[in-house]
Every structure is written in C-alpha cells, then in structure tokens.
Amino acid sequence: MNCIVAVDKNWGIGRQNKLLVSIPADMRFFRDKTLGKAVIMGRNTLESFPGGKPLKNRTNVVITRDRSYLASNAIVVHSVEAALKKLENWNTDDIYVIGGGSIYEQFLPYCDAAYVTKVNMAYEADTFFPNLDELKEWVRVSESEEQTYYDIEYRFAYYEKDGPQRRARLTKTICRLMS
C-alpha cells in the first residue's frame, strides 16, 4: 500500500481542512499516480474536494465515524479494518492513502511506499504527516532535483519501508540487472 502527500519543511500538510499550497506539477503527479487506483481518505478530505465529490476514475474509500454519512460514487466505511476489507482483493501497489492527517497516521503501518512532495517552505499548518526522515523503518530511496513554481521550491521524494518486502524487491532488481 502507498501513501501520497505534499509536505512543507515541518511536514505540515494542511490548515483548516485545506492544502497548504497548490503546485500544478504536484497535482499532475498525484493524478498520474492515482488514476485507475483505489484512494483511501477521511471524510474531511473528501469534503475539501471541489463540490465535495469523490475523485473521478478512482475507487474512493471514505472513512468516517458518522454512521449516517453517505457519499455518492464512494465506498463509505467506519474503520481502518473495514477499509482494508473492502480493498482486500486489490493489489496493494494500486492502493493510495491520500489523507488527512489522522488517516495517514492510522494507515502508515500498512504502507510500504510513500510518495512525498517536499516543499521547501514553512507554512502555518494545523495538520502534519509523520516525518519519515526521523522514522528508522523508512528509507528515502530517491529524490528529484529541486524544481520551482514561482518562488516555491520543491522536490519529489520516494520512500520505502525497510523490511523483508523491500529487500525482496531489491534482490529482484539486482538479479534483473545482472541477467
């Protein structure tokens, strides 16, 4: 399972249920990664989208504690376990956790990869993503060259959770390169 997020220098991701910054290249990256895939989000994230509507051409899974909550064109569940059950037949590489803060926190233990757009500015945030650079089980595998949108500098980083799955992928890659 993957998570995909844009963070500021302090790993802030939002303020008052809004993104801290909107960078067109980041939005394209998000769209390209998640099109045709399953996305898991909290109710507030869904409601922050234009018209409060689910993302097109994706399977939208919305988690809320409100048992009466309905969302057209989305699967509404009430727990992490229920979301995982709904997606149990999906390839985990095709599942993306997209926020908000508490959803990222609850699903991070299930994620093996993280796509992080790192914005080189500090904003006034009230919602944060765990700092993967400080978590020993996460390894930054790659990071793009710095890019600029107006005066905003950012990079695309890719992290993997260290463990047997990561080592198996590395072994497979090395074997493929050697053959």
Tell me about this structure.
With 179 residues, the protein is of the alpha/beta class. It has one domain (2-178): 3-Layer(aba) Sandwich (Dihydrofolate Reductase, subunit A), CATH 3.40.430.10. Helix content is 26%, strand content 32%. The chain contains 5 helices and 12 strands. It has helices at 24-34, 43-48, 80-86, 101-107, 164-178; strands at residues 2-7, 12-15, 18-19, 38-42, 59-63, 75-77, 95-99, 113-119, 127-128, 138-143, 147-149, 152-161. The strands form 2 sheets. Strands 1, 4, 5, 6, 7, 8, 10, 11 and 12 form a 9-stranded mixed sheet that branches. A hairpin with a 2-residue loop joins strand 11 and strand 12. The longest helix is centred in the C-terminal third of the chain and has 15 residues, at 164-178. The two termini are 29 Å apart. The model has no long low-confidence stretch (mean pLDDT 94).
What's the quick description here?
This protein has one domain: 3-Layer(aba) Sandwich (Dihydrofolate Reductase, subunit A), CATH 3.40.430. The protein contains 5 helices and 12 strands. Strand 2 and strand 3 form a beta hairpin.
